[in-house]
Amino acid sequence: MTSIYWAWGAVLAELGIFLSPLVISNSIPAFVGVLTAHTLACAIVASSTYLMLPARFQRPRAMVWLLMFDFAFVAPVVGAVGMLFLVRFTMRQAADKSRLAVPVSVDLPEYDVQGKDVNRSGQGAIRSRLGANVPGEIRMQSLLTLQAVPNRVSNPILEDLLGDSTDDVRLVAFGMLDAEEKKLSVHIQRERATLLGELTLEQRYTCLRHLAELHWELIYASLAQGELRNHILGQARQYLDAALAVGVPPNSGLLFLKGRILLAQGEIENAEVALQKAVALGQPKTSALPYLAEMAFKRREFGRVKQLMQQLVDLNVASRTRAIADFWTQSDNVSNFSDRRYLPHI
Q1: Cβ distance 238 to 258 under 8 Å?
Q2: Before 60, cis peptide (omega within 30)?
């Protein structure tokens, strides 16, 4: 509000100047004095009204200020007063519009997680809608819903559909698998081309790590089976060993990947060593303990499995992992086990 006081003060000062005898004087000093006072008053009015304008009307700054100054300068007193009323009218309109934009709080709709209307498409539900006795339209819709399902879950289902008797289902399943494999192959070819160039140790390490991760993704997404799977596993291990041999200190993620690759190749002891090193370097236990429990189970060390599962119970893990840990530690009530019927993509 200080700006409005300055503006009206300048208007009153200018009015006083034009009512004084200096206006009718014929001397040059009087003319220069009146012109200087009028210019200063116009500058004060223009600056004060500019500061009162809403932000969206202040740009471009120099042109807006000059326009207001000219308006006040050309019409002494009357121009300044008219401009002040225009600014006041503009501010009132802006205030009225801002009152219309006040948000209104509304009550959120009730959402029942266990309600019957909740649509949860698990792997079993999707498979049941892809059966040969299901109408073709429903089968195609269910097939397209697999695009929103993780590749780890959807790709085995698509593999089974490659031998389907319906041509459309078979072609769509093949196209989805082929598109996913080509996407990974493009990344692999790009990293291989990069590897042939002149790279620093860190760049070479990063490139080899990416190649190992991309080859592992082919395995994890179930895009390779049989002998091809063994071959890709071997390539993933070669790239990973080459990354570790570069000389850059390994991180926990790379050692964790090494443990998973070794476990997939059946080298349980070496895989456990790699996972233990990964945990020592900072890998979260929630991701390493299930694999360590799997290794203990394959060695028939069931007491060790129960001990590892007990550690998982004390951690914040996913619902599926929690269900398995509760089963091994006998901390889940069988009568309440039906509460776990809603599990994502079992």
Answers
A1: no
A2: yes
